[in-house]
DNA sequence: ACTGCCATACTTCCATACAAGTTTGCAATA
DNA sequence: TATTGCAAACTTGTATGGAAGTATGGCAGT
C-alpha cells in the first residue's frame, strides 16, 4: 500500500504545488483532516518544509473543489461535506455516465468488453475490508468507460466534482456494498455487450443512485461531518431524481 | 454596455485576483487575446499596476479552464481552441441539461413556465446583430432551468466547462442562428409545460447539438484559432453523439 | 552565406517580506 | 463579577527578490 504519511518529505525535483495539492486532498478525502479542522498556510508550510506560496496555491485549488473554506483574513478550515454538493455531484455523474454508457453500447467493441470483464474479476478478488484497493479499481472501471468512447477529457472534469462523493465513500467504511457494486458493474457490461442501449443506461443510473440509499445512514453516523440544509434531511423535497423513488 | 477596456484600473478595495481572472477570461473568450498570443505575468502585472502574485493566481485558474497554457520556465500562451475540448464540453452540457430538463418536465411549476416565456420574449427583442446581449439572455435562460430544479450548484460546474464553447460562440459573430435558438427555447418550454418528459429531453438535446452543425464552418473561417486532431476534421469518427446524425 | 557556441534577457516557480484585517486574551474599570 | 478597551498574535492578501531553466540574438569560425 502506498505510504500516506503526511510528514514524508516532498520530492524537491518535482513541482511542489501539485504534490501538495494531492497530499492534502487525500488527507481530507480520507478524513484524516476532519471537517471543521483549522488549517493554515504557515502551518502546512512548516510541516512540509516549503514556503507559503505553493501551499497557498494548493489551498486555492482545494477550495475550488469545495474541500477547503478560505475566509480571508480570518482562517481556513476543512469544509464540512455539503449535503447539497454531494447530491449535485451524484446528479452530474449520473447524467454524464448515463450518456457515456449509452454511447458505449452503441459503439460496442468486443475487445473492450473483455478488458472490462477482466477488470471486474480484479474487483472480485479484493478482500472485503480493503476499501482502499476497491476504490481504486472502481474508479479505474468508470474511467475506462469514459476512455472507451473517446471522452477521457470528460472524465477529468468528473474527477473535480467527485471529491465530495469520495469523502462520503470513506466514511462508509463498514457495511460497504462491495458485492452489489460489482454485480452492477457486471450488469452494465452485460447490457453493453448486448447492445441494449436502454438497459445499459438504466443499469448505469441505478448504479450511481445506489449511494443515495446509503447516504442517510452515513450522515446519521457522522452528523458533525455534514452541512445539512435547514431542518435536517428532507431528500424527498430537495433531491428529485429521474428514477421515481426519490421524487 | 459594460466597459471592457483592459486598461481600466481595478478596484483596489476588492480582492485583486478574482477581478483579474474575470477580466482576462473575458478578453480571451471574446478573442481580444487571440489563441497563440504570448502573455506573461510581469507584463499583465504592469498593465494593471499590481504585483505578479495575483496575476499568477489568475493565470493558474485560467489554465485550469483550458484558456491558458502555462509552460514552466518557457512561456504562457493563450491556448488554441482545442477541438476535442469543445466537443467534450458540449457533450457534458447535453448530458446534464437533458436530465435537468427532464426533471423540470416532471416537476412542472406553472409560475416558472410564465417566467421562462417572459424571458424568451426578451430574447426576441434583441437586435439581430447584438450577439452580446443575446448571449447573456441565453446564458440566463439555461441557468434558470438549472435553478428551477434546485441544481444551481450544478450550473456553476457547467460554467467552468463552458469556456471553450463560449470562445466558439464569439467567433461565429455572423450567421448566428438566433431565431432558431429562440424557437428551440420555446419548444423546450412547450414540452415542459406539456409534461412530456421525452420530448423535453429530446428538444434540449437537439438544441445543444446545434452548435455541431456550425462548428465546421467556424473552424474553416478561423483555422488558426483551433487545435485540430491529426488530419483535420473527422467528426464522424471522433465525436459520436446519441443522436445518430453524428455517429 | 551558413553553422555552432555563448552571453543575455526573459520566463515561471519558489522564498521571503510586508500590509491589512481578525481573533484572542488580558487588563483596567465599573 | 462582568464588561469594555486595547494590544499582541494570529490569519490571508499582496509585493518583491532570487533561483533554475529556456528562448533569443549576436558573434566567431568555417
Automatic annotation (TrEMBL), chains A, B:
<dbReference type="InterPro" id="IPR036390">
    <property type="entry name" value="WH_DNA-bd_sf"/>
</dbReference>
<dbReference type="Pfam" id="PF07729">
    <property type="entry name" value="FCD"/>
</dbReference>
<keyword id="KW-0804">Transcription</keyword>
<dbReference type="InterPro" id="IPR036388">
    <property type="entry name" value="WH-like_DNA-bd_sf"/>
</dbReference>
<keyword id="KW-0238">DNA-binding</keyword>
<feature type="domain" description="HTH gntR-type">
    <location>
        <begin position="14"/>
        <end position="81"/>
    </location>
</feature>
<dbReference type="GO" id="GO:0003700">
    <property type="term" value="F:DNA-binding transcription factor activity"/>
</dbReference>
<protein>
    <submittedName>
        <fullName>Putative HTH-type transcriptional regulator YdfH</fullName>
    </submittedName>
</protein>
<dbReference type="InterPro" id="IPR011711">
    <property type="entry name" value="GntR_C"/>
</dbReference>
<dbReference type="GO" id="GO:0003677">
    <property type="term" value="F:DNA binding"/>
</dbReference>
<dbReference type="InterPro" id="IPR000524">
    <property type="entry name" value="Tscrpt_reg_HTH_GntR"/>
</dbReference>
<keyword id="KW-0805">Transcription regulation</keyword>
<dbReference type="InterPro" id="IPR008920">
    <property type="entry name" value="TF_FadR/GntR_C"/>
</dbReference>
<dbReference type="Pfam" id="PF00392">
    <property type="entry name" value="GntR"/>
</dbReference>
Amino acid at each position: 500500500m502506498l505510504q500516506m504519511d503526511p510528514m514524508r518529505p516532498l520530492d524537491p525535483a518535482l513541482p511542489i504545488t501539485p504534490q501538495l495539492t494531492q497530499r492534502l486532498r487525500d488527507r481530507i478525502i480520507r478524513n484524516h483532516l476532519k471537517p471543521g479542522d483549522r488549517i493554515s498556510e504557515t502551518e502546512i508550510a512548516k510541516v512540509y518544509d516549503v514556503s507559503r506560496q505553493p501551499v497557498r496555491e494548493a489551498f486555492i485549488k482545494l477550495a475550488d473543489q469545495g474541500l477547503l473554506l478560505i475566509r480571508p483574513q480570518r482562517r481556513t478550515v476543512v469544509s464540512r461535506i455539503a449535503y447539497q454538493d454531494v447530491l449535485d455531484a451524484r446528479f452530474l455523474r449520473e447524467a454524464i455516465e448515463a450518456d457515456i454508457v449509452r454511447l458505449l453500447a452503441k459503439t460496442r467493441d468486443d475487445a473492450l468488453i473483455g478488458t472490462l470483464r477482466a477488470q471486474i474479476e480484479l474487483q472480485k478478488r479484493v478482500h472485503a475490508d480493503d476499501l482502499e484497493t476497491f476504490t481504486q479499481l472502481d474508479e479505474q472501471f468508470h474511467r475506462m468507460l469514459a476512455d472507451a468512447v473517446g471522452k477521457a477529457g470528460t472524465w477529468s472534469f468528473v474527477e473535480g466534482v467527485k471529491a465530495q462523493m469520495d469523502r462520503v465513500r470513506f466514511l462508509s467504511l463498514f457495511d460497504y456494498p462491495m458485492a452489489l457494486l460489482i454485480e452492477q458493474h457486471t450488469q452494465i457490461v452485460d447490457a453493453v455487450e448486448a447492445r441494449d442501449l436502454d438497459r445499459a443506461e438504466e443499469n448505469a443510473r441505478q448504479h450511481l443512485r445506489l449511494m443515495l440509499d446509503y447516504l442517510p445512514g452515513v450522515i446519521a453516523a457522522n452528523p458533525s461531518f455534514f452541512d445539512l440544509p435547514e431542518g435536517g434531511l428532507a431528500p424527498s423535497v430537495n433531491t428529485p431524481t429521474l428514477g421515481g423513488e426519490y421524487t
